[in-house]
Specification:
This protein is mainly beta and 169 residues long. It has a domain of 85 residues: Immunoglobulin-like, CATH 2.60.40. 2% of the residues lie in helices and 27% in strands. The chain has 1 helix and 7 strands, in the order H-E-E-E-E-E-E-E. Strands 2, 4, 5, 6 and 7 form a 5-stranded antiparallel β-sheet that branches. Strands 1-3 form a two-stranded antiparallel ribbon. The longest helix has 4 residues. The protein starts with 11 loop residues before the first helix and ends with a strand. The relative contact order is 0.13. About 5% of the residues have low confidence. InterPro entries: AMPK1_CBM (IPR032640), CBM20 (IPR002044), CRP1_MDG1_kinase (IPR050827), H1/H5 (IPR005819), Ig-like_fold (IPR013783), Ig_E-set (IPR014756).
């Protein structure tokens, strides 16, 4: 009896695309080396030495690249701070006055160097450390800019008045 193959009709279930089966990650297999069998010495004639299994020659290690470092200059010493000299400025004013020192060494800022009358005698002083050089200065007494009456070296300034000059050696 002959059997007839009938065509199957597609159903909704069959029409849906089949998901591909998940592939399992293959674990790396250790490379198997075929075992080298040493020849039996019994089968060889006495005058033929037994051969040892052939070995691959060892790979020569490649030399490691060494980074060439740029030559370092000797550590430069920090420039030493210029040697300074302590200079004391003195001016006489009325006791209780507000006196300050302004000059080329402090940007002409009278608030930067207030002067004090320690003894209450009217002699105001201020000590400043200055490197060698030539400095122009003025006193500001109760808001009035005044040249140093004790200084013999004066120069005219841009305002048409005089600045006192102090040279530090």
């Amino acid at each position: 009896m002959a059997t007839k193959k009938t065509a199957k009709t597609t159903t909704a279930k069959a029409a849906a695309p089949k998901a591909a089966p998940a592939k399992k990650a293959a674990a790396p297999k250790a490379a198997k080396k075929p075992a080298v069998k040493a020849p039996e010495t019994e089968d060889l004639p006495l005058d033929v030495p037994a051969k040892a299994p052939a070995k691959k020659p060892a790979k020569a290690a490649a030399p490691k690249a060494v980074k060439a470092e740029p030559a370092k200059a000797p550590a430069a010493k920090k420039p030493a701070a210029p040697k300074t000299t302590r200079v004391t400025f003195r001016v006489r004013a009325e006791v209780g006055s507000k006196v300050a020192l302004a000059g080329s060494f402090n940007g002409w800022d009278p608030a930067d160097k207030p002067m004090t009358d320690k003894d209450g005698t009217g002699e105001f002083t201020c000590t400043v450390s200055l490197p060698k050089g030539r400095y122009e200065y003025k006193y500001v007494i109760n808001g009035t800019w005044c040249a140093d009456p004790e200084c013999t070296d004066w120069v005219q300034n841009d305002m048409g008045t005089l600045n006192s000059v102090k040279v530090v050696d």
